[in-house]
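Q: I'm writing up a methods section and want to include an example of the input and output format. Could you take the sequence below and give the corresponding predicted structure tokens, formatted cleanly so I can copy it straight into the document?
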Amino acid sequence: MDRRLTPANARAALTLLQGKVEAGRFTTGEAASLIAPVTDLLNQPEGTRDRQVLWGEAVTVIDRHKGWAFVQAAKDGYCGYLPETALGPLASPTHRVTAPATHLYDAPKVQARDLASLSLGSLVTVVEDGGKFARTPQGFIPAKHLRPLDQPLDDAAAVAELFIGTPYLWGGNSRFGLDCSGLVQAALTACGKACPGDSDLQQSVGTALADDAPVQRGDLLFWKGHVAMAVGPDRLIHANGHSMSVAYEGIADCIARVIAQEGRPVLARRRP
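A: Here is the clean output for your methods example:
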């Protein structure tokens, strides 16, 4: 089983795995939501970052031990460890942050004290709307930075372009740092399309394209360990270690550069 998607460790596992894995106990899990702006999802307590989860996203808590929680993210099924302090009760979000980043304020005015910085993709519960600021249980957010969950965006490439200049961060999922698969996941999720967390898993998204198929806006190009999104027939956008940022690059130039530097050809093309 893929460790990233298997809700089990040596101490506990979800009941759906009973008879399939060995664990100290089996549980139905505990529903919770993130109450920190961005939290690393680690491969083990005090370990390395696999991915990140954002404010308001739901997780199933499988195990708690010595201040750490082993969880499975509702967004993509990814499993890992995060600090218990990042978790709160399960929320019922109504809106998604669709600006590249925004602030949570303690009052509905631009001069108010900021309480937290939230990235595109964060989930919030709006309890009062109608003005320049939307009120949530935690504070106020500029209304123009939010969109109801039942009104997804319709241009994934345009969402990806909002992140231009964002610094590259391995395993990153926020405006504060992204990797290639984090960028693609953020763009597709904002458009209401389910998307796994890592580039190898994302090769199951949408439909496969022939090598000679004309490139359309939003198409995905995959190399071993990397994914990029087309913004036009000759240009792509990707979070990449070459520029250490989210940047545009010519498709032909990118393919030639990666082959020359790393010997990696394009492995697959998909249309979400």
